[in-house]
Write a structure and sequence with these properties.
The chain is of the alpha+beta class and 453 residues long. The chain has 20 helices and 17 strands.
Length: 453
Protein backbone atom coordinates (compact mmCIF):
# COMPACT_ATOMS: atom_id res chain seq x y z
CA UNK A 1 0.00 0.00 0.00
CA UNK A 2 2.97 2.32 0.65
CA UNK A 3 4.06 2.14 -3.01
CA UNK A 4 0.49 2.78 -4.13
CA UNK A 5 0.22 5.78 -1.80
CA UNK A 6 3.48 7.24 -3.10
CA UNK A 7 2.29 6.89 -6.69
CA UNK A 8 -1.07 8.51 -5.91
CA UNK A 9 0.34 11.36 -3.84
CA UNK A 10 2.03 13.02 -6.80
CA UNK A 11 -1.09 13.39 -8.96
CA UNK A 12 -4.05 12.69 -6.69
CA UNK A 13 -3.33 13.85 -3.12
CA UNK A 14 -6.96 13.43 -2.03
CA UNK A 15 -6.93 9.81 -3.25
CA UNK A 16 -3.63 9.23 -1.44
CA UNK A 17 -5.16 10.56 1.79
CA UNK A 18 -8.22 8.33 1.31
CA UNK A 19 -5.90 5.36 0.81
CA UNK A 20 -3.95 6.23 3.97
CA UNK A 21 -7.07 6.50 6.12
CA UNK A 22 -9.35 3.85 4.62
CA UNK A 23 -7.28 1.68 2.25
CA UNK A 24 -7.97 -1.50 4.23
CA UNK A 25 -11.70 -0.84 4.58
CA UNK A 26 -14.25 -2.26 2.18
CA UNK A 27 -16.11 0.24 0.02
CA UNK A 28 -19.29 -0.56 1.93
CA UNK A 29 -17.57 0.20 5.24
CA UNK A 30 -16.20 3.46 3.80
CA UNK A 31 -19.69 4.49 2.68
CA UNK A 32 -20.99 3.71 6.15
CA UNK A 33 -18.78 6.33 7.78
CA UNK A 34 -19.66 9.16 5.37
CA UNK A 35 -22.01 11.59 7.03
CA UNK A 36 -22.99 15.23 7.31
CA UNK A 37 -21.76 17.29 10.24
CA UNK A 38 -24.34 20.04 10.85
CA UNK A 39 -23.23 23.67 10.82
CA UNK A 40 -25.27 26.88 10.89
CA UNK A 41 -26.52 28.29 7.61
CA UNK A 42 -24.96 31.55 6.47
CA UNK A 43 -27.63 31.79 3.77
CA UNK A 44 -30.89 29.77 3.89
CA UNK A 45 -30.66 26.10 2.89
CA UNK A 46 -34.36 26.20 2.08
CA UNK A 47 -33.62 28.53 -0.85
CA UNK A 48 -31.45 25.82 -2.40
CA UNK A 49 -34.07 23.13 -1.77
CA UNK A 50 -36.78 25.29 -3.33
CA UNK A 51 -34.69 25.87 -6.46
CA UNK A 52 -33.90 22.14 -6.76
CA UNK A 53 -37.60 21.31 -6.52
CA UNK A 54 -38.57 24.02 -9.01
CA UNK A 55 -35.93 22.88 -11.52
CA UNK A 56 -37.03 19.24 -11.53
CA UNK A 57 -40.81 19.84 -11.47
CA UNK A 58 -41.24 20.48 -15.23
CA UNK A 59 -39.23 17.34 -16.04
CA UNK A 60 -40.61 14.85 -13.51
CA UNK A 61 -43.68 16.34 -11.83
CA UNK A 62 -44.35 17.83 -8.41
CA UNK A 63 -44.18 14.57 -6.43
CA UNK A 64 -40.79 13.37 -7.72
CA UNK A 65 -39.27 16.86 -7.56
CA UNK A 66 -40.54 17.27 -4.01
CA UNK A 67 -39.09 13.92 -2.95
CA UNK A 68 -35.73 14.94 -4.43
CA UNK A 69 -35.71 18.10 -2.30
CA UNK A 70 -36.82 16.11 0.75
CA UNK A 71 -33.93 13.64 0.35
CA UNK A 72 -31.47 16.54 0.35
CA UNK A 73 -33.21 18.12 3.33
CA UNK A 74 -32.91 14.90 5.33
CA UNK A 75 -29.37 13.88 4.34
CA UNK A 76 -27.68 17.26 3.70
CA UNK A 77 -25.15 15.75 1.29
CA UNK A 78 -24.74 16.81 -2.33
CA UNK A 79 -22.94 14.75 -4.96
CA UNK A 80 -20.93 17.33 -6.94
CA UNK A 81 -18.36 15.01 -8.52
CA UNK A 82 -19.56 14.72 -12.10
CA UNK A 83 -19.72 16.66 -15.33
CA UNK A 84 -23.18 17.23 -16.80
CA UNK A 85 -23.54 14.93 -19.81
CA UNK A 86 -25.36 11.75 -20.85
CA UNK A 87 -23.64 9.34 -18.47
CA UNK A 88 -21.54 6.80 -20.41
CA UNK A 89 -18.10 7.35 -18.85
CA UNK A 90 -17.27 4.56 -16.39
CA UNK A 91 -16.06 6.59 -13.40
CA UNK A 92 -19.15 8.79 -13.66
CA UNK A 93 -21.56 5.85 -13.73
CA UNK A 94 -19.88 3.92 -10.93
CA UNK A 95 -19.85 7.07 -8.78
CA UNK A 96 -23.59 7.58 -9.27
CA UNK A 97 -24.32 3.98 -8.23
CA UNK A 98 -22.04 4.44 -5.20
CA UNK A 99 -23.95 7.58 -4.13
CA UNK A 100 -27.22 5.71 -4.65
CA UNK A 101 -25.93 2.97 -2.33
CA UNK A 102 -24.80 5.55 0.23
CA UNK A 103 -28.32 6.97 0.40
CA UNK A 104 -29.63 3.49 1.09
CA UNK A 105 -27.16 3.11 3.98
CA UNK A 106 -28.78 6.26 5.39
CA UNK A 107 -32.24 4.72 5.32
CA UNK A 108 -33.49 6.23 2.06
CA UNK A 109 -35.35 4.07 -0.47
CA UNK A 110 -33.10 5.17 -3.32
CA UNK A 111 -36.11 5.73 -5.60
CA UNK A 112 -34.83 9.25 -6.28
CA UNK A 113 -31.11 10.06 -6.19
CA UNK A 114 -30.09 13.74 -6.64
CA UNK A 115 -26.87 14.93 -8.32
CA UNK A 116 -25.39 18.36 -8.96
CA UNK A 117 -23.19 18.30 -12.05
CA UNK A 118 -20.83 20.78 -13.67
CA UNK A 119 -22.08 21.94 -17.10
CA UNK A 120 -19.23 24.24 -18.12
CA UNK A 121 -16.96 21.60 -19.79
CA UNK A 122 -16.63 21.55 -23.57
CA UNK A 123 -17.82 18.66 -25.72
CA UNK A 124 -14.22 17.47 -26.11
CA UNK A 125 -13.88 16.92 -22.35
CA UNK A 126 -12.40 13.55 -21.36
CA UNK A 127 -15.78 12.23 -20.09
CA UNK A 128 -16.89 12.48 -23.75
CA UNK A 129 -20.10 14.56 -23.72
CA UNK A 130 -20.03 14.23 -27.54
CA UNK A 131 -21.52 10.74 -27.52
CA UNK A 132 -21.56 7.17 -26.21
CA UNK A 133 -18.70 5.09 -24.82
CA UNK A 134 -18.36 1.30 -24.91
CA UNK A 135 -15.75 -0.49 -22.76
CA UNK A 136 -16.70 -4.07 -23.68
CA UNK A 137 -14.98 -3.66 -27.04
CA UNK A 138 -11.91 -4.55 -29.06
CA UNK A 139 -10.77 -0.95 -29.65
CA UNK A 140 -6.99 -0.68 -29.06
CA UNK A 141 -7.38 2.03 -26.42
CA UNK A 142 -9.99 -0.03 -24.54
CA UNK A 143 -12.85 2.32 -25.31
CA UNK A 144 -15.07 2.68 -28.38
CA UNK A 145 -16.37 6.22 -29.01
CA UNK A 146 -19.64 6.77 -30.85
CA UNK A 147 -20.20 10.51 -31.38
CA UNK A 148 -23.51 12.33 -31.72
CA UNK A 149 -21.97 15.77 -32.18
CA UNK A 150 -19.70 16.56 -35.15
CA UNK A 151 -16.04 17.36 -34.57
CA UNK A 152 -16.60 21.02 -35.50
CA UNK A 153 -18.69 21.51 -32.34
CA UNK A 154 -16.05 20.07 -30.01
CA UNK A 155 -15.35 23.46 -28.40
CA UNK A 156 -19.01 24.14 -27.55
CA UNK A 157 -19.95 24.28 -23.87
CA UNK A 158 -22.33 21.61 -22.57
CA UNK A 159 -24.34 24.29 -20.77
CA UNK A 160 -25.40 25.97 -24.02
CA UNK A 161 -24.98 23.60 -26.97
CA UNK A 162 -28.03 22.49 -28.95
CA UNK A 163 -29.68 19.20 -28.06
CA UNK A 164 -29.05 15.81 -29.69
CA UNK A 165 -31.18 15.74 -32.85
CA UNK A 166 -32.68 12.76 -34.72
CA UNK A 167 -30.07 13.27 -37.47
CA UNK A 168 -27.28 13.04 -34.90
CA UNK A 169 -28.80 9.82 -33.56
CA UNK A 170 -28.97 8.35 -37.08
CA UNK A 171 -25.31 9.22 -37.68
CA UNK A 172 -24.29 7.56 -34.41
CA UNK A 173 -26.30 4.44 -35.24
CA UNK A 174 -24.66 4.21 -38.67
CA UNK A 175 -21.26 4.42 -36.98
CA UNK A 176 -22.35 1.76 -34.46
CA UNK A 177 -23.34 -0.62 -37.28
CA UNK A 178 -19.99 -0.08 -39.01
CA UNK A 179 -18.10 -0.80 -35.79
CA UNK A 180 -20.22 -3.89 -35.14
CA UNK A 181 -19.41 -5.27 -38.59
CA UNK A 182 -15.72 -4.71 -37.81
CA UNK A 183 -16.12 -6.68 -34.60
CA UNK A 184 -15.45 -3.67 -32.36
CA UNK A 185 -18.37 -4.58 -30.10
CA UNK A 186 -20.80 -7.46 -29.74
CA UNK A 187 -24.20 -7.70 -31.42
CA UNK A 188 -25.83 -7.75 -27.97
CA UNK A 189 -24.17 -4.47 -27.01
CA UNK A 190 -25.09 -2.93 -30.35
CA UNK A 191 -28.72 -4.02 -29.94
CA UNK A 192 -28.84 -2.52 -26.45
CA UNK A 193 -27.44 0.80 -27.67
CA UNK A 194 -29.85 0.88 -30.60
CA UNK A 195 -32.77 0.35 -28.20
CA UNK A 196 -31.46 3.18 -26.03
CA UNK A 197 -31.30 5.49 -29.02
CA UNK A 198 -34.82 4.59 -30.20
CA UNK A 199 -36.53 4.46 -26.79
CA UNK A 200 -34.71 7.25 -24.98
CA UNK A 201 -32.94 9.70 -27.28
CA UNK A 202 -35.73 9.80 -29.86
CA UNK A 203 -38.49 9.89 -27.24
CA UNK A 204 -40.68 12.96 -27.02
CA UNK A 205 -39.46 13.54 -23.45
CA UNK A 206 -35.91 14.05 -24.70
CA UNK A 207 -36.58 15.66 -28.07
CA UNK A 208 -38.79 18.41 -26.68
CA UNK A 209 -35.76 19.66 -24.71
CA UNK A 210 -33.91 22.23 -26.80
CA UNK A 211 -30.44 21.93 -25.26
CA UNK A 212 -28.08 19.14 -24.25
CA UNK A 213 -28.16 20.57 -20.73
CA UNK A 214 -31.91 19.91 -20.44
CA UNK A 215 -31.76 16.63 -22.35
CA UNK A 216 -29.10 15.28 -19.98
CA UNK A 217 -31.44 15.68 -17.01
CA UNK A 218 -34.06 13.51 -18.74
CA UNK A 219 -31.64 11.04 -20.36
CA UNK A 220 -29.80 10.18 -17.15
CA UNK A 221 -33.03 9.58 -15.23
CA UNK A 222 -34.19 7.20 -17.96
CA UNK A 223 -30.79 5.48 -18.09
CA UNK A 224 -30.62 4.75 -14.36
CA UNK A 225 -34.00 3.03 -14.56
CA UNK A 226 -32.32 0.51 -16.89
CA UNK A 227 -29.19 -0.22 -14.80
CA UNK A 228 -30.65 -2.84 -12.45
CA UNK A 229 -32.58 -6.09 -12.70
CA UNK A 230 -34.53 -5.57 -9.47
CA UNK A 231 -35.18 -1.82 -9.12
CA UNK A 232 -35.62 1.28 -11.27
CA UNK A 233 -34.28 4.36 -9.46
CA UNK A 234 -34.29 7.79 -11.05
CA UNK A 235 -30.94 9.59 -10.94
CA UNK A 236 -31.85 13.27 -11.13
CA UNK A 237 -29.10 15.53 -12.47
CA UNK A 238 -29.22 19.32 -12.08
CA UNK A 239 -26.48 21.56 -13.51
CA UNK A 240 -24.61 23.31 -10.70
CA UNK A 241 -24.44 26.50 -12.75
CA UNK A 242 -28.23 26.57 -13.17
CA UNK A 243 -28.73 26.16 -9.43
CA UNK A 244 -26.08 28.79 -8.68
CA UNK A 245 -27.58 31.30 -11.12
CA UNK A 246 -30.98 30.91 -9.47
CA UNK A 247 -29.52 31.34 -5.99
CA UNK A 248 -27.50 34.36 -7.10
CA UNK A 249 -30.66 35.98 -8.45
CA UNK A 250 -32.14 35.65 -4.96
CA UNK A 251 -28.99 36.96 -3.28
CA UNK A 252 -28.64 39.93 -5.62
CA UNK A 253 -31.96 41.26 -4.32
CA UNK A 254 -30.55 41.46 -0.77
CA UNK A 255 -27.71 43.88 -0.16
CA UNK A 256 -26.74 42.20 3.13
CA UNK A 257 -26.32 38.72 1.58
CA UNK A 258 -22.69 37.64 1.92
CA UNK A 259 -22.47 36.90 -1.81
CA UNK A 260 -23.46 40.51 -2.55
CA UNK A 261 -20.81 41.79 -0.18
CA UNK A 262 -18.18 39.56 -1.79
CA UNK A 263 -19.05 40.86 -5.25
CA UNK A 264 -19.74 44.53 -4.49
CA UNK A 265 -17.87 45.49 -1.30
CA UNK A 266 -14.58 46.64 -2.76
CA UNK A 267 -12.32 45.75 0.18
CA UNK A 268 -13.69 42.22 0.57
CA UNK A 269 -13.72 41.61 -3.19
CA UNK A 270 -10.08 42.69 -3.50
CA UNK A 271 -9.11 40.38 -0.66
CA UNK A 272 -10.91 37.46 -2.31
CA UNK A 273 -9.22 38.11 -5.65
CA UNK A 274 -5.86 38.07 -3.91
CA UNK A 275 -6.41 35.09 -1.59
CA UNK A 276 -7.97 32.81 -4.23
CA UNK A 277 -5.44 33.64 -6.94
CA UNK A 278 -3.91 30.40 -8.20
CA UNK A 279 -6.57 28.14 -6.67
CA UNK A 280 -8.03 25.54 -9.05
CA UNK A 281 -11.61 26.47 -9.95
CA UNK A 282 -10.94 30.17 -9.32
CA UNK A 283 -8.42 32.29 -11.26
CA UNK A 284 -4.71 32.74 -11.85
CA UNK A 285 -3.77 36.36 -12.45
CA UNK A 286 -4.85 37.41 -15.92
CA UNK A 287 -3.93 34.11 -17.55
CA UNK A 288 -6.08 31.33 -16.09
CA UNK A 289 -9.60 30.71 -14.88
CA UNK A 290 -12.07 33.58 -14.68
CA UNK A 291 -13.12 36.22 -12.16
CA UNK A 292 -16.34 34.87 -10.65
CA UNK A 293 -18.23 34.34 -13.95
CA UNK A 294 -17.55 32.93 -17.42
CA UNK A 295 -18.84 34.67 -20.50
CA UNK A 296 -20.83 32.53 -22.93
CA UNK A 297 -21.17 33.61 -26.57
CA UNK A 298 -23.53 32.75 -29.42
CA UNK A 299 -21.22 29.91 -30.54
CA UNK A 300 -21.83 28.29 -27.12
CA UNK A 301 -18.15 28.95 -26.33
CA UNK A 302 -16.95 29.96 -22.87
CA UNK A 303 -14.51 32.83 -22.47
CA UNK A 304 -12.85 34.28 -19.34
CA UNK A 305 -13.73 37.60 -17.77
CA UNK A 306 -11.47 39.84 -15.69
CA UNK A 307 -12.45 42.47 -13.15
CA UNK A 308 -11.63 46.00 -14.26
CA UNK A 309 -12.12 49.12 -12.13
CA UNK A 310 -12.25 52.68 -13.40
CA UNK A 311 -13.50 55.90 -11.81
CA UNK A 312 -15.03 53.99 -8.93
CA UNK A 313 -17.01 51.61 -11.16
CA UNK A 314 -16.25 47.91 -11.58
CA UNK A 315 -16.93 45.71 -14.61
CA UNK A 316 -16.12 42.25 -15.95
CA UNK A 317 -14.34 42.44 -19.29
CA UNK A 318 -13.21 39.87 -21.83
CA UNK A 319 -13.13 38.84 -25.49
CA UNK A 320 -15.40 36.16 -26.89
CA UNK A 321 -14.57 33.47 -29.45
CA UNK A 322 -15.59 35.78 -32.30
CA UNK A 323 -13.01 38.37 -31.23
CA UNK A 324 -15.63 40.75 -29.87
CA UNK A 325 -14.98 42.78 -26.72
CA UNK A 326 -17.49 42.10 -23.95
CA UNK A 327 -18.04 44.26 -20.87
CA UNK A 328 -20.51 43.52 -18.09
CA UNK A 329 -21.05 46.17 -15.40
CA UNK A 330 -20.54 44.61 -11.97
CA UNK A 331 -23.97 45.60 -10.68
CA UNK A 332 -26.86 43.48 -9.37
CA UNK A 333 -29.06 44.44 -12.31
CA UNK A 334 -26.51 43.69 -15.04
CA UNK A 335 -25.51 40.37 -13.49
CA UNK A 336 -29.14 39.31 -13.05
CA UNK A 337 -30.02 40.16 -16.66
CA UNK A 338 -27.07 38.21 -18.06
CA UNK A 339 -27.59 35.22 -15.81
CA UNK A 340 -31.17 35.07 -17.08
CA UNK A 341 -30.27 35.40 -20.77
CA UNK A 342 -27.48 32.82 -20.45
CA UNK A 343 -24.58 35.06 -21.47
CA UNK A 344 -23.00 34.67 -18.02
CA UNK A 345 -22.22 31.34 -16.36
CA UNK A 346 -21.18 31.18 -12.69
CA UNK A 347 -17.65 29.90 -12.19
CA UNK A 348 -16.80 26.92 -10.01
CA UNK A 349 -15.96 29.10 -7.01
CA UNK A 350 -19.44 30.67 -6.99
CA UNK A 351 -21.04 27.23 -7.42
CA UNK A 352 -19.36 25.87 -4.30
CA UNK A 353 -19.82 29.14 -2.44
CA UNK A 354 -23.59 28.96 -2.86
CA UNK A 355 -24.14 25.22 -2.35
CA UNK A 356 -21.45 24.31 0.19
CA UNK A 357 -19.67 27.16 1.94
CA UNK A 358 -22.70 29.36 2.66
CA UNK A 359 -25.31 26.64 3.24
CA UNK A 360 -25.45 23.62 5.51
CA UNK A 361 -24.54 20.93 2.98
CA UNK A 362 -21.61 18.52 2.71
CA UNK A 363 -20.37 17.69 -0.79
CA UNK A 364 -19.09 14.41 -2.23
CA UNK A 365 -16.62 14.91 -5.07
CA UNK A 366 -13.85 13.45 -7.16
CA UNK A 367 -10.14 12.89 -6.65
CA UNK A 368 -9.27 16.59 -7.19
CA UNK A 369 -12.22 18.20 -5.39
CA UNK A 370 -11.12 17.77 -1.74
CA UNK A 371 -7.78 19.44 -2.52
CA UNK A 372 -9.15 22.51 -4.30
CA UNK A 373 -12.07 22.91 -1.89
CA UNK A 374 -9.58 22.98 0.99
CA UNK A 375 -7.67 25.76 -0.81
CA UNK A 376 -10.91 27.66 -1.50
CA UNK A 377 -11.90 27.28 2.15
CA UNK A 378 -8.58 28.60 3.44
CA UNK A 379 -8.62 31.52 1.00
CA UNK A 380 -12.20 32.43 1.89
CA UNK A 381 -11.45 32.37 5.61
CA UNK A 382 -8.33 34.53 5.19
CA UNK A 383 -10.22 37.07 3.07
CA UNK A 384 -13.09 37.33 5.55
CA UNK A 385 -10.76 37.76 8.52
CA UNK A 386 -8.48 40.24 6.75
CA UNK A 387 -11.46 42.39 5.87
CA UNK A 388 -12.91 42.20 9.38
CA UNK A 389 -16.48 41.95 10.61
CA UNK A 390 -17.03 38.38 9.38
CA UNK A 391 -15.62 36.23 12.19
CA UNK A 392 -18.80 34.19 12.65
CA UNK A 393 -19.02 33.41 8.92
CA UNK A 394 -15.29 32.63 8.76
CA UNK A 395 -15.57 30.16 11.65
CA UNK A 396 -18.46 28.31 9.97
CA UNK A 397 -16.64 28.08 6.63
CA UNK A 398 -13.42 26.98 8.37
CA UNK A 399 -15.28 23.97 9.83
CA UNK A 400 -16.56 22.74 6.44
CA UNK A 401 -15.47 19.30 5.26
CA UNK A 402 -16.15 17.15 2.18
CA UNK A 403 -15.53 13.61 0.94
CA UNK A 404 -14.29 11.79 -2.18
CA UNK A 405 -16.48 9.26 -4.00
CA UNK A 406 -15.56 9.59 -7.70
CA UNK A 407 -12.67 7.40 -8.81
CA UNK A 408 -13.53 4.30 -6.79
CA UNK A 409 -13.98 1.46 -9.29
CA UNK A 410 -15.65 -1.75 -8.17
CA UNK A 411 -17.71 -3.07 -11.12
CA UNK A 412 -15.51 -5.03 -13.54
CA UNK A 413 -16.20 -7.72 -16.12
CA UNK A 414 -13.95 -9.85 -18.30
CA UNK A 415 -13.60 -10.68 -21.97
CA UNK A 416 -10.82 -12.19 -24.07
CA UNK A 417 -8.76 -9.03 -23.80
CA UNK A 418 -8.91 -9.00 -20.00
CA UNK A 419 -10.95 -7.05 -17.47
CA UNK A 420 -12.83 -3.87 -18.29
CA UNK A 421 -14.87 -1.36 -16.26
CA UNK A 422 -18.64 -1.60 -16.39
CA UNK A 423 -20.53 1.49 -17.48
CA UNK A 424 -23.82 2.45 -19.12
CA UNK A 425 -23.42 0.53 -22.39
CA UNK A 426 -22.54 -2.63 -20.47
CA UNK A 427 -25.44 -2.16 -18.04
CA UNK A 428 -27.89 -1.62 -20.89
CA UNK A 429 -26.72 -4.92 -22.38
CA UNK A 430 -26.57 -6.78 -19.03
CA UNK A 431 -28.10 -5.01 -16.00
CA UNK A 432 -26.92 -5.86 -12.48
CA UNK A 433 -28.84 -6.97 -9.40
CA UNK A 434 -28.47 -5.34 -6.01
CA UNK A 435 -26.91 -8.59 -4.77
CA UNK A 436 -24.15 -8.14 -7.35
CA UNK A 437 -23.65 -4.54 -6.23
CA UNK A 438 -23.41 -5.62 -2.59
CA UNK A 439 -20.82 -8.26 -3.47
CA UNK A 440 -18.77 -5.81 -5.52
CA UNK A 441 -18.71 -3.30 -2.65
CA UNK A 442 -16.79 -5.81 -0.52
CA UNK A 443 -13.67 -4.83 -2.47
CA UNK A 444 -11.17 -2.74 -0.49
CA UNK A 445 -10.75 0.99 -1.00
CA UNK A 446 -7.13 0.27 -1.96
CA UNK A 447 -8.23 -2.11 -4.72
CA UNK A 448 -10.89 0.36 -5.93
CA UNK A 449 -8.17 3.02 -6.36
CA UNK A 450 -5.72 0.83 -8.30
CA UNK A 451 -6.87 2.07 -11.71
CA UNK A 452 -5.67 5.62 -10.87
CA UNK A 453 -2.02 4.55 -10.91
Amino acid sequence: MTEQMTALAENYPAAAELLRRHGGDTLLAYLGQLHHRPLPDILPSEDLLTEVRDYFTPFFGVETAGECADVLRRRRCLSTANHHHPAFEYMTVQDTILCDRWLRTQGETGAVVPFLSCANPRLDNNVYPRGMLVYDCTAPEGCLRLPFYPFKLRHACVAAVEGISPDMVDNALNRLRQETRRGSCSLRTADALERFCREVLLSDRVQRCGTLREQTTVINAMLSQRYFTDRAPQYLWMPMETLTARLLERDLRTEDALTCQMLFRRELRASLLRELDGVSGCWTGNTGGTHFFWGLDRRAALFPLRLRESAGAAALAGQNSLGEAVTVPLTPRALTERLRDGSLLPGLFLCFLEAHFLRDFTVFGGFYQPAYLAEMRRGLVRALRETGGYEEEAAIIEAKRNAMTLGLIYLLRSHEGGRFPVSTAELLEQPVSMLEIEASLQVSVAAALEHLN
